[in-house]
């Protein structure tokens, strides 16, 4: 008899999550962004999780944690009412719908709060994911992270449009 795969679940961020979410953040950057960013850029980006600021940002935002069998495997955060600040999934579960589940939830929460448009500064690695969800590129950015230049793209979605709409039914 076939065994069912464990179903992912969502829960709110807890301060005790910071170390495991920092590890997911680093693993995601190290293993999933190599086609778009060089090693020095990846290292500079990963170092952001080593500061106290990382946990403070997670706590200040509306942060959701995706779990499998109770263990965190990804997270996403909504900064303010309308900006997805972070979306990271452990490479071991990449492509299994975890990021989609996280962004669906953020879109629904934002829409339920009256937000009409969401923005995200998508890495080159994540840009295709967001485009498939109906986010449109607005501008290209170059940012400095720990003395390294990284490119990303500000993307925007009007809630209630595009695939997997976040509008409440």
From TrEMBL:
GO terms for molecular function: acyltransferase activity, transferring groups other than amino-acyl groups. Residues 8-160 form the N-acetyltransferase domain. Pfam families: Acetyltransf_10. Gene3D superfamilies: 3.40.630.30. It comes from the Bacteria. InterPro entries: Acyl_CoA_acyltransferase, GNAT_dom, N-acetyltrans/Recomb-assoc. Keywords: Transferase. This is GNAT family N-acetyltransferase. The lineage of its organism: Bacteria, Pseudomonadati, Pseudomonadota, Alphaproteobacteria, Hyphomicrobiales.
């Amino acid at each position: 008899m076939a065994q069912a795969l464990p179903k992912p679940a969502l829960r709110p961020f807890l301060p005790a999550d910071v170390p495991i979410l920092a590890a997911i953040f680093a693993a995601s950057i190290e293993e999933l962004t190599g086609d778009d960013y060089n090693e020095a850029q990846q290292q500079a980006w990963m170092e952001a999780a080593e500061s106290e600021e990382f946990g403070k940002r997670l706590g200040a935002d509306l942060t959701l944690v995706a779990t499998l069998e109770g263990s965190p495997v990804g997270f996403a955060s909504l900064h303010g009412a309308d900006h997805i600040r972070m979306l990271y999934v452990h490479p071991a579960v990449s492509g299994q719908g975890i990021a989609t589940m996280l962004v669906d939830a953020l879109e629904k929460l934002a829409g339920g709060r009256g937000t009409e448009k969401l923005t995200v500064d998508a890495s080159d690695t994540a840009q295709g994911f967001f485009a498939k969800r109906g986010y449109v590129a607005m501008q290209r950015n170059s940012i400095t992270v720990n003395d390294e230049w990284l490119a990303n793209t500000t993307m925007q979605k009007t809630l209630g449009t595009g695939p997997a709409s976040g509008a409440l039914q």
